[in-house]
Amino acid sequence: MAEALERDDYGLLFALIRLAELGAHKSLVKVPTEKFGSILRLSQQSASRILRLLEQRGWIERFVSREGTYARITNGGFERLIGLHRDLARILESRIEPIAFRGIVFTGFGEGNYYVKLYRRVLRDKLGFDPYPGTLNLRAATIEDLKALERIRSLPAIEIPSFKGRGRSLGSARCYRVAVEHRVRGVMIVPERTHYGRDVAEILAAERLREKLGLKDGDIITVELTFEEDSLSKAKG
Amino acid sequence: MAEALERDDYGLLFALIRLAELGAHKSLVKVPTEKFGSILRLSQQSASRILRLLEQRGWIERFVSREGTYARITNGGFERLIGLHRDLARILESRIEPIAFRGIVFTGFGEGNYYVKLYRRVLRDKLGFDPYPGTLNLRAATIEDLKALERIRSLPAIEIPSFKGRGRSLGSARCYRVAVEHRVRGVMIVPERTHYGRDVAEILAAERLREKLGLKDGDIITVELTFEEDSLSKAKG
DNA sequence: ATTACTATGTTTCGAGTAA
DNA sequence: TTTACTCGAAACATAGTAA
């Protein structure tokens, strides 16, 4: 898909679309350069050049006569249009509502500090940052936010495996990269076992979020899923 | 559709597609300018500028942080993608086989000369050129060519009305603009009444085609329908 | 009418670099 | 590491004009 498009060809591809709109994908069409230029909002000269470039690329056939240029889109050119259409279709079909939720800040049981310290090494390795020892607890603000939370939990995550440390077994967890208030990068961590209900999200970040964002209990903040292609591969150290 | 695209925005629209392929239409996505530049095959600087321009156009939201730029496609930007997709869908769905046929040159009853002279004025007015007094007769080369001929005859045509001239009534006819051998502009004329069968096409042009193309009986040539938006309105004089 | 060449103006790109 | 500024270079657009 991406390989199908040299960047230099962007303008040309749009000219090709305009030609197709004139019917050049079905048959020879008369396209005087002056008129084609006005369609492209370019000069007669540029339209002429563009038709020649399209021919050079093999996207159109071109016959110049005294009354003007006749052009037809080739199979190669038509395939470009099909390719672009398919790329767009794939994008549009994959559209889902943005995955974000708003949560109400509350004070939890205070275990965050302890657990984050136990998991610190593996979290740092998996996440690429050293987590502040403590989680920010959020309760879904509305029923929609609860649904968003469930939707997030259904997605593939950064897996934190269970392991043994300090003589005790530590459960597994799953992490999702998020942006907090559009400004601070962090992860939402979903422990295998938790004291909280499914309407609660726990957020980890490199810094203390309450301080960084000036938060107090009852504040409502936005947490939004982010994607980094390298989420799973990034294991530096 | 066309109004939806300022020409200056072509490159930007493609950048938007690339962003969508990264998932930016669903959620915030991390797009460091260096990496985005390599996706677009542009420099880090240009990628940075393009992200700022996309934001200016209102097609994306953009949050710059220490680790890079986070971006998300806005509803406005998404609508551009939908618009482009719809334009392409309309084009692709309207695709039909090119309307062309190959015909075998033969010598007819020799009435062409006489009839073209009778119709000369009205033909010149309707077609925009002064027809050579004589038609080139073509017999469909294969059954596919016959089908193509029938398909052409089913399309809307340039109508030559019946009229009275030199004391006799002249039948109506219908004309289709064609390109002969990709080089010569002419029309295929379908008289209301004819001595020929439905496998025969009669071609008119400004010049004598046998001479211009060096044709003799038995030669096979290509005749292809062409479209000129102004076909029906062009009645100069 | 056309197309398209040449010369010139304008925009876009990216290396260097600051923050 | 980032983003993004400056400014010289490259690419692109068009007016004038020939054919």
What does this 3D model show about the protein?
- The structure is a homodimer of 237-residue chains.
- With 237 residues, the first copy, chain A, is an alpha+beta fold.
- The first copy, chain A, folds into 2 domains: 9-90, Arc Repressor Mutant, subunit A; 100-235, Riboflavin kinase-like (Elongation Factor Tu (Ef-tu), domain 3, Beta Barrel).
- Helix content of chain A is 35%, strand content 28%.
- Chain A has helices spanning 10-21, 33-40, 44-56, 75-93, 112-127, 143-153, 209-212; strands spanning 28-30, 60-65, 68-73, 100-106, 136-140, 158-160, 163-165, 168-170, 173-180, 184-191, 200-205, 220-227.
- Chain A has a 6-stranded antiparallel beta barrel with strand order 4-5-11-10-9-12. Chain A has a 3-stranded antiparallel sheet with strand order 1-3-2. A two-stranded antiparallel sheet of chain A has the order 7-8.
- In chain A, β7 (163-165) and β8 form a beta hairpin.
- In chain A, α2 (33-40) crosses α3 (44-56).
- The first copy, chain A, is elongated and about 90 Å long.
- β1 (28-30) of chain A pairs parallel with β12 of chain B, so a sheet runs across the interface.
- Chain A binds a DNA duplex (19 and 19 nucleotides) through residues 8, 11, 32-34, 42-46, 48-49, 51-52, 64-69.
